[in-house]
Every structure is written in C-alpha cells, then in structure tokens.
Specification:
Number of strands of chain A: 2
Subcellular location (chain A): Cell membrane
Organism (chain A): Alsobacter ponti
InterPro entries (chain A): ABC_transp_permease (IPR001851), LivM-like (IPR043428)
Largest interface: A-B, 32 and 39 residues
CATH architecture of one domain in chain B: 3-Layer(aba) Sandwich
Largest sheet of chain B: 6 strands, mixed
Number of helices of chain A: 17
Oligomer: heterodimer
Distance between the termini of chain A: 36 Å
Order of helices and strands of chain B: EEEHEEHEHHHEHEHEEHH
Order of helices and strands of chain A: HHHHHHHEHHHHEHHHHHH
Protein name (chain A): Branched-chain amino acid ABC transporter permease
Strand order of the largest sheet of chain A: 1-2
Keywords (chain A): Cell membrane, Membrane, Transmembrane, Transmembrane helix
Radius of gyration of chain B: 19 Å
CATH topology of one domain in chain B: Rossmann fold
Chain lengths: 359, 255
C-alpha cells in the first residue's frame, strides 16, 4: 500500500474511522452481532433478520452516496435493488441452479442498472432537484408497473421462486460434525456469503467517498455552482455517483433474492422499501455511511421485533380498550413514524452526527 | 502577433427588453492588469458572468488565447485557464477552509476522477493547499468551516481558491469589498505579485479609485452595459464620460 500512515485498519476504513468512542463501540457491537448471529441466536428468525440487516446496510449506504454525499434526492433507488433481485431470480429460474447462473444474473443486472442510471443521470440531473426527484419517481413507478405486467419474464405480482446452487441449500452439510455447537448448512453459508459481500461493498463505498472523487461529491452538495466554477463537471460527477450507487443497490438486491430464494415486486420494488431506506439514512445520519449501518440495524430490528413487543404490550393492556388499540401490532408503522419524527427532531444530523458531537 | 489572453467580441446579453451587456468588444493582454469600473448596474459582473460562462450570451463571442470558448460550460472554461473569484462570496460553507482550497488544487491537478485512492494520500494536494493558505494569511483558520469565517477572511479564501487554480486569466470581482482596512493590503499585494509574474492577464472589478490608480495598467469603463472608455488610469479617470457616468448616477441618487 502507498504511504502506510495508520496501518491496515486505517486503509480498510479509508482514514475515515468512527471518530467517536460510543459510535466505535456501537459499530463493533453490530459487526460482532452480525458475525455471531448463526452461532448465538438459534432459529430462522434471527438469522433472517441479520441477513436483512446486511442487505439493507448495502442499500442504505449506497443511497447515502446520493442523498448524503452528493445531495441528490432520488426515488428510483429500489428500482436498482429490484433489478439485482430479478437478475439473479430470472437467471436461476430459467437456466437452472448454478454459480455461473448467479454470476450471469448479477452481471446482467449490473449492466442494466448502469445503463438506466446513466440515462436518468444524463437526462435529468441537469434539471432542478425537485424535478429530478419527480422524474425518478415516475421512472420507478413505470418500472414497478412493467415488472408486474411482464409476468412471463418476472412472474408478475407473484414474483419468481427459484432453486439455489447446491452449496447454499439447507440440505448441504460441508462438515460432518457441528462447529461450535452449530450444524453448518447451506443456509449458514449463504448468510456468511451475504455478510462478506456486505463488508466488501461497505468498505468499497467508504473508499469511494474518501477518495478525491468522493470529496468532489461533497463539494457539489455544498455548492454546486462553485464546484462547476472550479472546473468540475457537475453533471458527470453526479452521473458517476448515481451509477456507483445503483450498482451497489443492485448487488444488495441480488443478495436479498439469494437469501429469500425468491424475488417479487413486494420484496425489492415497493415504495415502502424506498421509504424504509430513506428513514435508515436519515435516522442513522446522512453523509456518514456509518449512519447507514446504524439506521439499517435499528430499522430492521424494529420491523422484525416491534410487532412482537407491541403484541405483548397490547395483550398486557387488554383492560384499557383505547391503549390496547393503540398498541395493537397493526399500528407498528404508526409507532415507527413517531420514532422517526422524534429522532429527526432531536437528532437532525442522525445518530452518527449526534455521536460525533455535531450539531 | 500572439492572440490576446482574453477577448470579447460584440458580447451582448438581453433580459427581455433590457440590454444588460451591450456589444462589448475588448481584448486583454497577458502581463497587464485591467481595472473595470462603472456605476452599480453598469453590467460589470454580468459581463464577467458571460466571460466565465455562468450566463449564456445572447450574441457575441469570448476567446481565450485565441480559442473560441463561447459555447463551453463554465467548468470547461476554468480547465482551459480562465479563473474567476466571485463578488458575493461563493464557497463550500460546510467544508473546512483547508478543504475549500484543497478542492481547488485538486480541480486544477485533474485528480477528481480518482476514486480508488484515499484523498489523505494525496499529500501533494494537501501541502499545496497549505502553502496557498500561508500566502493569503489564513493558515491559522485552516480547520474552521468556511461558513464560520468573518467576511474579510471569506474574501481571502475566495482569492485563495482562484490562486489554487493557477489560471492564465484571473478575474477578480471586488476582491476587497467588505474587508477591514488592515486586511486590504494583503490581498492587493497578492494581486500585485500575480501581475509581476508577467504571463497572466488580470481583470479587476473595483470601486475604490485609489486601488485602481495604484494597481491598474489600464482602465475600462462600463456604463449601461456598454464600454464607454478605455485607456491608462490617469487619462480615463479624468475624462468627461467617466465623470458623467459616475456623476450621472450621483445626480440620480440625489433626486
């Protein structure tokens, strides 16, 4: 490596560490938790939640490149997420289970995402922010409709269920004996594959935002006009950021499909996912990338366990009809909304911004 | 004969029925400092905007070293050597003073497309930014956010960004406006240093007549969007048109 200042850890984190002891501990806890989940928490729900956290870390981090670093508001991010999912699903469904098909699906999806991100970027990043947001919304809606209508290719509303390569199936047992008390099977391998991809994508994005290129993105966010006057072609930089962001989202979508052995409009394309990602980035802290880790973890945990907690609370409050109704598990979105409003009000710079001692 | 460093030919911009810059033709040679004067609303900043590409011209041409740059976006003009400092301070408010200058150095070095290396490993860019901060006497403020600088220091930072671009043509738009009296000499001596290097053309919009007299090789007067006088400072500033341009304004204000 060049330079050698700060060593391997600094190189991995691209000289952009947590810069807060509490945040460092929190991130280490999340990383340790994700690494240990299959061994520590038995059952399918915890490992499913952990896999979802990984996928959403990638998705939220890639969205932060646009929203937090470049100052671009796009609603088409789930489209790229969906393209990744459909790429893998269609390849494995049509061509049969195999690693070559996985690679083909991912590569084809990345290609389509690049082309679409380039097209949206070049056509509409020249217009004002609000119009750009509207255009992305329109494109994403069109894509959602298209995915639902082209049922011969995409399975329509039902989506596509498919077979995984043998090594990722539950029946695959690489070791005769349990390791640390856990019988390793294809599901566990699939989980660790997703975790490894997440680490790679996250560190890659961290490098991008801490490169000379990434610093230009922040300059564009701060003062687009001045960035242009310094000689930076703002449209080119924004478009490049959109392409990088889209590619990372595509990889995240592919990983989700591999985990679920399924892809459909509801799992990767729906607008509620877009809202979730927006919440993750804002709650975690825009323009920090680490915020995506914190935000994705908080939100997925809330989505997975808040309903269960509320069901218990609601049952406990059965005597008081209004309280019980408010705490009914079906209202969990309401409570999530309240949490969101409170967190934005009290931590306008997100959890990470707050922990780093920002305003 | 070599082409002038910068030239505008019949440069015009209309906003509806209003002609803000009216057929201005003017050439600037390397090694000279030209002051551009005129009352408020004369079209000085608008003319600058047409030259640097912030505003598209209705008609006319801009030539940089003989090359027609009329159709190019602002970023391309900057990369070709046309540097501009802005009248209303125009910085990256949420970034540090050092990072503001480093971004300008990085732009000039053409390093912005590098997305695999850490920016912290481009020591050369950081060191050059530090040197420029030293020149404009802002080293003590390097870690401060640009938004938190006092006005005078923001002006100096604006000048620092321009120096970092190392352009062939420097365009200063009232670089000392809003500065305290003891800060003005720092900026003026910087501009003088640039002129002494002899190979750059410097354009300076300035209201302070003593500054114009002491720095300029040539004075160009704009009035109602048109070029009304052009010549050595002593000559131009005594001329009837200039007095009329300024006195006319004063008379209008008195009414």
């Amino acid at each position: 490596m060049s330079g050698g200042r700060g060593g391997v850890l600094a190189a991995l984190l691209s000289d952009d560490g947590p810069r807060s002891r509490v945040l460092a501990v929190l991130l280490l806890a999340i990383a340790a938790g994700l690494a240990a989940t299959p061994f520590v928490f038995p059952g399918s729900q915890p490992i499913g939640a952990a896999a979802k956290i990984c996928v959403f870390i990638m998705l939220a981090a890639s969205y932060d490149i646009l929203l937090g670093y470049t100052g671009v508001v796009s609603f088409a991010h789930t489209m790229f997420f969906g393209i990744g999912g459909y790429g893998v699903a269609i390849a494995l469904d049509r061509l049969g289970p195999g690693w070559g098909q996985v690679a083909l699906g991912v590569v084809a999806a990345l290609g389509l995402s690049c082309v679409l991100a380039l097209a949206i970027g070049l056509i509409s990043l020249r217009v004002r922010a609000i119009f750009f947001a509207m255009i992305t919304l329109a494109v994403a809606s069109a894509f959602l409709v298209l995915a639902s209508q082209l049922s011969t290719l995409t399975g329509g509303e039902d989506g596509i269920s498919f077979q995984l390569p043998g090594e990722l199936r539950p029946a695959f047992r690489p070791f005769a004996e349990p390791v640390l008390g856990l019988a390793i099977n294809g599901r566990v391998l699939a989980y660790y594959m997703i975790l490894a991809v997440t680490v790679l994508v996250f560190l890659g994005l961290l490098r991008v935002v801490n490169s000379p290129f990434g610093r230009v993105l922040q300059a564009i966010r701060e003062n687009e006009f001045r960035a242009e006057a310094l000689g930076y072609r703002v449209v080119a930089y924004r478009t490049a950021a959109s392409v990088i962001s889209a590619c990372a989202a595509t990889v995240a979508g592919a990983m989700l499909a591999l985990w679920l052995r399924y892809n459909g409009p509801d799992t990767t394309l729906s607008f509620s996912i877009m809202i979730d990602v927006l919440l993750m980035v804002v709650i975690g802290g825009m323009g920090t990338l680490y915020g995506a880790v914190v935000g994705a973890t908080l939100l997925v945990l809330a989505q997975t366990y808040l309903q269960a907690v509320m069901a218990k609370a609601s049952a406990a409050a059965a005597g008081a009809p209004i309280v019980a109704a408010i705490l009914h598990p079906d209202r969990w979105l309401l409570w999530l909304g309240v949490l969101f409003v409170l967190s934005v009000y009290f931590f306008p710079t997100g959890v990470v911004g707050r922990l780093r001692g920002g305003r | 004969m070599a082409a002038p460093a910068l030239e505008t030919r019949d440069l015009t911009v209309r906003f509806g029925g209003h002609v803000a810059v009216d057929g201005v033709s003017c050439a600037f040679e390397a090694g000279t400092l030209t002051a551009i004067v005129g009352p408020n609303g004369a079209g000085k900043t608008t003319w600058f905007n047409l030259i640097s590409g912030q505003l598209p011209a209705t008609s006319g041409r801009v030539l940089l070293g003989g090359r027609d740059i009329s159709g190019l976006p602002a970023s391309s003009r900057t990369r070709l050597g046309l540097g501009r400092a802005f009248q209303l301070t125009n910085l990256f408010p949420g970034l540090s003073v050092r990072e503001n200058v480093r971004l300008a150095v990085q732009a000039r070095a053409g390093a912005g497309a590098d997305l695999l290396r850490r920016w912290t490993h481009r020591r050369d860019l950081i060191d050059e930014a530090e040197d420029i901060l030293e020149q404009v006497r802002l080293s003590g403020r390097a870690g401060t956010l640009a938004a938190e600088l006092p006005d005078g220091d923001q002006r100096k930072l604006e000048v620092a960004l321009l120096i970092a671009l190392r352009p062939r043509v420097f365009m200063f738009d009232e670089p000392t406006a809003g500065m305290s009296v003891d800060e003005v000499p720092t900026v003026l001596s910087l501009i003088q240093d640039l002129r002494r290097q002899g190979d750059r053309a410097i354009l300076l919009v300035e209201h302070k007549m003593d500054v114009v007299r002491s720095l300029a090789d040539r004075v160009v007067v704009l009035h109602n969007g048109a070029l009304v006088a052009d010549g050595p400072p002593a000559e131009v500033m005594e001329s009837a048109v200039v007095r009329e341009a300024y006195l006319g304004l004063e008379a209008a204000l008195d009414e």
